[in-house]
Every structure is written in C-alpha cells, then in structure tokens.
Amino acid sequence: MIRTIDLHKSYGSFAAVAGINLNIQSGEIYGFLGPNGAGKTSTIMMLLGVTRPTSGEIYLFDERYTPERLDLRRRIGVVPEKHPQGVWTWMTAIEYLRLFADLFRVDKPEKRISFLLEQVGLDGVRNKRMKEFSRGMMQKLSIIRALLPDPDLLFLDEPISGLDPLGIKQIRDLILSENRDGRTIFISSHLLSEMEKLCQRVAIIYRGHLMAEDRMGALLSRLTKDREVTIEIEAIPEGLAERLREELPFVLESRADGNILSLKIPKEGDFRRTISEYLIKHDQVPLRIQEKTLSLEDAFVTITRDNIDMLTQDPAAK
Amino acid sequence: MNYRMNATVAIGRHRLRESLIHPGYYISLTISLLVGYAFVAAFVRSIDSSGFNYHANPLYDFVGGVLSGAFGSTVLSRVFADGPFLFAMNVSFLPVLLYLAMTSVYRFGTEKSSGAIELLTYGPSDGTSYFLGSLAKDVLLSAAALLALFLFYCFAGIVDNIAVTPRLLEEVFLLFFSAIAIFAYGILVSSVTDSANSALALFLAGFVLLAVSLVGSYAIVGGYVRSLSAIAAWIVQWFSPFFYWSLGTRAAIAGEFGGFALGIIGLIVLVVAVLTASHFIIRSRGVRP
Amino acid sequence: MRKRNSYRVRVAFAMIVLILGVGTVLYADVPLREEQFIYSIVSFNGRDYGGTFVRQDSGTFYLMAGTDNFVSARKTLVYYWPITANYRVDTQTLNHQFDGTLHIRGNGVDIRLRQEQYTYYNLRGTYELNWEVAKGQEAEKVFQDYQKMVTDYQNGLLEYQKELSDYQDSMNSLGAQIIRLSNQGKDVAKLVEQLKALKQPREPAQASSKYAMPPTRLQHAFIVNLKPGLYKVEFLNPDGSTMEGSEKQLIVFAEHAANRVGYDVIPGDKWTRPESSTMPGSVLYIDGSTDLYLRPFFETEYNDLYYEKLLSNDARGNPNATQWVKLQQVPAARIAVTGAGKTESVTEEDFRVQQLQGATLGYQIVPYVQSTTDPYAKPDLIAYRIPIASGETVVHIAGRASDGAPLPGSRRQIRVIAAPGPESLLVVLALLPLMIMAIALRARSRRYSK
Questions:
Q1: pLDDT digits over C306-317, tens only?
Q2: N or C, fewer C-beta in 10 Å, chain A?
C-alpha cells in the first residue's frame, strides 16, 4: 500500500528525516511512533503529499507518488490532530461535509453523508453550526469527513486525543470496523495503550531514523526486559516475599501487598509451576497466578534514549 | 474535469456560497451604489444653461478642484465629457473591489495559518486550486457588482436623461480585468507571507504604492526629467494594473479601440504572470502553517 | 505741554510705521537679476507664432514638428517675477545675441545650423492660417515690399488728405456763393452744376489689407524644422567650443489628432461668457432654460505638457494628457440638428442683444436687422442658433462643410436636464442588495433552525 525508499527531508542543514524505508501492507493497522521532534510529522507530511521529499521515493497504491498526483490523494482520508480553529465555524456539519464531498467527487453525496452521520451518532446535529460542536463531536465529524470518499487508506493523527472514555471506545470500534472492511489504517499517536490495542504493526522513528518496524508482539517482546507475576494468597506470612527471592534464583524482585504477592521474573521461561510447587511446599495455597506482560506504555513512557540501544538489537543475536 | 479543476470549482462554489450568506458583500455593494447615486445626484444639480459647472455643487467642486489641481483641466473635461458615469463608475466600484480583495487576502492568511488550506490539500487539491477557487469567487462577485453598477447607471440615465455611451461599457470591461489583476496580486502577497496581518499590510502597501505611482505619472509636472525615480517608476508601471487601466481608459475616451484592447491584453498578461508566479511560490513554500 | 508731547509721539510713531511699510514694499521684492545664457524661441503653436525663452537652468525645450521655428542664442538678465510667478528677461538692459552654430543631433539627424535672416507673415484669405515664412534674400524682399506698401500708403494718405481738404474748401466756397447769390435772387444753376461736379477724393487702400498679419521686421536666428523625436542641442562658438549652459534636450512633437471640430457654446443668458466643447463625440448637458448659440472651430490635439512648454518654457503640464487647441472658425459651415425624429439645417446668423424694457432686468437675443440709420452698426453676435424647444430632451448635432461633407469630430449630443428626475427610485435600487441580504440570511436561518 505505502512504500518509501530512502526517504529524506532536510530543512537547511537540519535533517528531519534521514533515510526512512517504510512498508505498510494493504489492510493492516499500522502505528507510527516516536517522541516529539523525531520526524513523525515530516514523514507524514511527505506521505500525504503536503511537502516534497528532499530525496527518496514514495510509492502509494504501487504507483510513484508525488505532490502533483492529486488522483492518488482521492483515495486517502486524513484525520489530523487538530481541526483548523477560527475558520469555517459559520458552517453547519452538513455544509462542511458537502464541501469535502464536492472536493472528493463523492458519488451520491447526500446519501453517503447521512449514512456516516448516523454511524457516528451525529445525525441529530447535522444542521448545527460547527462552532457549537464539542471536541469529541468535531473529532467524529473529522472522521466522517475522512471517510466520505470511501478511501482505501486512512491516516489518523492522534485520533482519540481529548476524548472521553465513551468517545475513545466509539472511535476505537470505528477504526476496527473500518479495518475489517478492508481499509488500511495508518495511525500516529502518543497514546501507546491505544496503539497496543489497535495496531498490528508499528514503526518507531527517532531523530529522523527508523529505529524499528515490526509486528506488535515482536516489538513488545523486544522492549520488555522482564515480566511480573502476581499471586493472590489467602494470607501472606511475614518474610515469604524475601524467602522467595532468596530461594528461587529466577525471582529478580518480590514484594507483598496485602494478599497479593508480586514477583519480577525474566521474560523468557515459564516459572508458574515452580512457584506453585514452592508455595504449596510452604503451606500456602495460591488462589490465582497472573502474569502481567509489561505494556508498550510502561516500557515506552516518554520513550527515552535509554531504550534506543535495546530497540535496535536483533533478538536473534542474543 | 481534472482534479485541480474540480477542486477549484468545489472551493470556489463553497467560497461563493459563503459570501452570499454573509452581509459583507451586500453592504459593500450598497455603499458602492449609494456612492454612485451621490455622484449622479450632484451632477444633475451642477448643470446650468451653458453645461456642467462643477463649481455649482460642493461634491463636484471638491472633485473638480482635486482633479484639475493634480492633473489639469484637460483631464477634468475628458473625464466628464459624456457625463458623470465614467468617473462615478470608477469611484463607486472601489468599495466592492477593496472589500473583496482585502477579505480574500486576509482569509487566505487566516486559513493558511489555521491549517485549513492544509486540510483541503490532504484531499485531491493543492494550494493552486485553493487560490484559483478563491479567485473564481472574487471574479464572479466583482462581475456581478459591475453589472449591478452598470444597470444602475443605465437606469439613472433614464431617470435623469444622462447619456450611457459605449465608453461606459468599455470602462466596465477595464475595471473587470483590473480587478482580476488586483485579486491576483492579493494571491501573490498571500503566497509569500506567513500571516494574515502581514499579507494584508503588504497588499495595502503595494496597492497604495502602485496607485501613487499612477497618480505621479499622471500629475502636472514641470518638465521632461530623466531621473532615477522616473526610470524606476517607468519600470514599476509595467507591473501595475493601474497602468494598463489608465492606458485603456484614455484610449476609450479618445475612441481608440487599439489602445483599449492593448490595455485589456496587458491586464490579462499581467494576471497570467502573477498567478503563475504565485503557483510556483506556493508549490515551493507549501501551505503548512 | 503734555498734550503736545503726546501728539508728537503719535506723529513720530505713524511716520516710522509709514517709512517701514513703504520701505518694506519697495525693497522686499526687488527681483535678483542674473546674467544668463538663454535660447530665445519664436515658435509656431498651431495658430500663430509666439515667443518664449529657455533659461540656463531649464534642461529641455519644445518645438512643433514640420514647421519653421526660430531659435537664437543670447545673453540677457533673467529674474523671477513673483507677482505672476514666472521668470522674465530684462532685454532692455542686456540683450546680446551670439554668433555661432547650432548643433542638433539625434533621431537620425546630425546637423549644424547657421543663423539666417527671416520674416513671417499671415496672408488674409478664407482661412486664417495662411502663415508664410521667408528666409534670406527673400525675407529681405518681402519686408522691403511691405515697407514700400506702407510708404506708398502713407504718401497716398497725405495726398488724400490734401485732396480732401481742397475738396472741402471748394465745397464750402461754392456753397457760400450759392447761398449769397440765391439770397440776392440771382441764377445759381451753373454754380450748382459745379458743386455737383466736384469729386470726393477716395481714401487709399490700407497697406496691410492683403495681410492678416504683416511681415515682422527682419531678424536673424536659427531656423529649426525637424521631425518628431528627441534631440540634443548645443550652441557652438565661432571657434568650435561649446557655449557653457547651452546643452539642452529638444523635444519635437506632432499633433495627436488634427482638423477636428469643437464648438464655442454660448448660452442665451450668458452670451459674454462662452464655454467650449472640445471633445469629439461628447455630450453637452444644459438646463434647457435658454437657446444655445454655437460657433464651430477647427481644433488639433497635442500633448498637454509639450504644448504648455511650447507656449512658455516655465509652464507645467500633464505628460500623459492631451489638450485640444482651438485654431480658427470653420467658415461657411452648417449644423445639422436632429431632434424628435426630424433634422433641420442651421446656418450662421447675425444676432443682436436687446435689453429688456421696463422693470425687467436682463436681455434677450434677437435676429439682427441691418440698420438704415446707423451705417456703422454691427451685429453683437454671429453664431448658429440651436433652439432648445420645450419637451425635447435629446438633440444631436453634426457639422457640415460648405460642400455638405461631414466635419470630422463635430458630432455632439445635447441633453436637457431641467430638473432632477424621480431619484427616490435610485435610492431604492441602491438599497436593493440589503434587501436581498435580509432574505438570504433569513432563509438560511429558517432552513437550519429546523
């Protein structure tokens, strides 16, 4: 669907994007991650044709893509992070959508608009002026706008930023639904927990370089140094946590919190049986053993430079 | 229809609709018509047994004093050779022209800095189709305003027995193409600046500079002077819509169709050149805020 | 004593004020006279010859193309005269004409002119513009011929006066004899025959009767006749050096349009204050309170700045405008007047201004009838009367030459605006956009409030 070959973008002597090779497959939900200033926006702007690469090539729908290829942009829907402020506020939702329907030459535009408004629950406010819309309503409207031309590719930049939990769920469901219909979805976001739930593949960019591009599971595995196991016991005797750490070599850390015993163990290997046997041996009955995989967010919160080396290591070489 | 053309039409239609459901255009048009009425009514009250006596009415006394003082009595007699309509048409068109030009410049800057143009260019459009759409709206509205003014003066001619000559129709064409050239310059300054305020300031400064340059070239002088400022003014005039407008107007008054056509052609060439430059500038600078 | 002192002080104060005032007036505006090199120009301006001069500070002078113009290089005193706000020359004090060569180059020309003797004059004819220029020997001959004509006329006039005196003496003497003898009852028939036989001497024809303007006195100058264009001019001394301050630009210009027709417009109620209509095809708006009297004239169009500078080198003008210059009356023309679907032909007529009788102030213009009692009576106005009949609001006029050919540029419309029309309609029209706005906004508001 999207392929870039050695994509570069420089602003003077500053290289915002330094040789990126992306490969986004048709029908997948692709996450694009990176800290502020990593080059995400510059890359996305080139993919959207808003800016011209300094060098490199972009292929969209297997065709060479340049900013002059307006015909290819007809097949893309874009939901930017921020809706333009202070302009178009006089328009109603229906007028706003009609503008874009005209722009994209949507077939049977009124029918399509009505369908989409109903889908996101905005049909009742179709004649309301946009200046009266809440943040969540604007975001939904923005998604409708992007979906108007029934695009093959959907670009989402922080699609759930600023939404309430219900709104987040609605948008998440919508994205998954669109993907089930065969739409390729490209998401850029800082909310790694959501990315974890949505994305099948992710790419990580840092200082203009593509650090990693892989399936979500594989990437998490590479990010996660260790695991946490929580064991619920009726009553934890004093000293049990320390004895576990001392007597079981694979236990890296342990702590007791009420009747929950938390153990940090290496990410490789299954130690549940050994732990259960130890507890039973010491007259403790484990009521529940749960393994908590470190999340993308936990490991990646404000992704720091410390993780970069780890990210770039090939797991097969370990 | 190719995508750029489609985008131009879609954006132009949207902008036109927006203009027609907001009061600004109607108010400026009303002001234009009222200014026209004022000049017609004052003219009728300046007629005596020997003809048009501009001292007989305060408005024309002022206008006549300014025109003859700055440009000479010959210019004054030529401007009013057929009656008040030629002068009135030019002056009364100004409110609409300035309203359309300034709001478009400001709007371009506001939509650029807010990211609205960028949002449009995510789809099958680009900066060029955006400004062409905006231009199309301005062209249609200025054409409508000129038509309204022309019909108004035709009616005034019937009411007050004032002649409507082919010179007035020629002036309408000149104003139409001059307006397009001014709109094109508005697009150019919007393409090179980053904010609405700086675009508007640059546009107004350019407008005043070119107008003053025209007035200066037309004013009474002491003699033939080949100075640096005169040479600079000679160079600037070829880029000025006012130069071609004055060329065409003088030719129309003198009944020289060749000069009139040259003025129109000059304006068209200027429009094409300025829009082409704008296209390349916006393509290079982009539309990102 | 105190009263006398106070009086003296007041007188002294008044004297001081008077002296200062007069002194200020006397001494404040004495113009500074500066010795300068100038070009003295006698140039043709389309109608006749006029003079101006080009100061040393002035960089350019202007001449008309295709005509003989006379340029001389002089040294004189130049001063600024603030009352008329222009520069003048004091040739009474200093007026030295230089002998040398005028070098003109540019526009494909490089010539050196020597000064020539010249005179110019205007022959009387149907047209007033019968200007002739004579140069060199011919000029001398023309002027001498004219001098001889003047001398012959003067001699003839003396002769005539003598003969007239003799005639009158004879008349008086015979008359007295006839009366005396008649009173004595004698036969005076022979004397009456003698009286009738006396021939009144005829006044000699004026010397300048063949001239509208007689030949000017002989002068020397450079005779400049060039094609339109931009030239450089300098005066060369006999030794070949360039006279300081003599390098100028010369703009030679031609007319934009020639032989069009304009009109003197004389309203019936302001016959001493005619206006002009010079723009071909223009519209003349009048209030219809009186008839119009027109006088067509030939006119030519020139660049405004160039023409003004031709007349006076210190003048100002508009380089991008043109002006129509009135040349002469169109002789024996007719004006076709079309109104209310019919056309009538108007010819030139004589008119008399008749004061209104009684308490009514003002005058009326009536057709002139030759007086039988006053042989010296003449018409007050000779013009073409355009009747502005009541009800007729638009009249078209077009000039025709004596042979019926249309006169170029002579078409005009005359429109009567007696009073403003129903202008409230115009105000309603002007406010129409606001009404449309109200409807549009209301429609949108109702549509989207559903």
A1: 999 999 999 988
A2: C
